[in-house]
Amino acid sequence: MENFEQEKGKTFIIVEIIEYIPNSVVIKTIIKKTTGNVTVSSFDSGEALTEKSSPFDSFIQVIDGKAEIVIDGTSHVLETGQSIIIPAHARNVIKANVRFKMISTIIKSGYEEVNI
Fold it and tell me: What is the CATH number of the domain that holds 77?
């Protein structure tokens, strides 16, 4: 599993920066900060992440293929271009019945509001 930030100030095509690897889930960090992170992942067919929950909302967007996202026992099938927000503290699992790629964005709460 690679875990380093994408180079800043350079253009890229998100779906092309991560490859499918047979029998694997690959996760690449795009941005990692104390206030949240953005990752891109590829899942080979038949792979899944272990069921978990997070203290923060998670925004998931499928960028290639089709994903199954199970939130508190309810299954949601997302196709390319579709998104879902996994609520904070909800039990969830992400499954690949067919291979897919996704972007995950987590914005952590509890930090001071910044005035711009």
Answer: 2.60.120.10
